[in-house]
Amino acid sequence: MTCIPRIGALDIAEAVAERIGSYVDMNFIQFLAVEGDRVRCWYMNSGGDGPTFEIDLHRESSGWLMTLQEHPPGTEQDIEVP
Questions:
Q1: Are the CB atoms for 12 and 28 separated by under 8 Å?
Q2: Exposed, middle or buried by CB within 10 Å (0-12, 13-18, 19+), for 21?
Q3: Which residue of 25, 40, 47, 61 sits 20 to 30 Å from the alpha carbon of 54, by its own alpha carbon?
Q4: pLDDT digits (tens, 9 = 90+) for 43-54
């Protein structure tokens, strides 16, 4: 995996779109928490019928690493529970 100096919502949407093979609206990407050098986000398709991803952004000395973990459709995040 390659480190990049900056990651934005469009970069995350593009990575998820590559995994699922269709358009991803960046407005469905949720920022959840920052823990040290880790930023945690969540993507759930509108209505929860489509793919769901946990997105971890890790800060390394050379830039940012992004990892995606797919979950079953409709899975709710349990990182930041109101």
A1: no
A2: exposed
A3: 61
A4: 998 777 888 999
Report the largest interatomic distance among the alpha carbons of the chain, rounded to a whole angstrom. 38
| Residue that the structure tokens 């899975």 belong to | 75
Helix (H, G, I), strand (E, B) or coil at 48: helix
Residue 15 backbone dihedrals phi, psi, to 5 degrees? -65, -40
CB 43 within 8 A of CB 30: yes
Kindly state the tokens that stand for 74.
């409709």
Question: Distance of CA 77 to CAs 12, 30, 47, Å?
Answer: 17, 10, 14
pLDDT at 60: 93
Element containing residue 19 per DSSP (H, E): helix 9-20
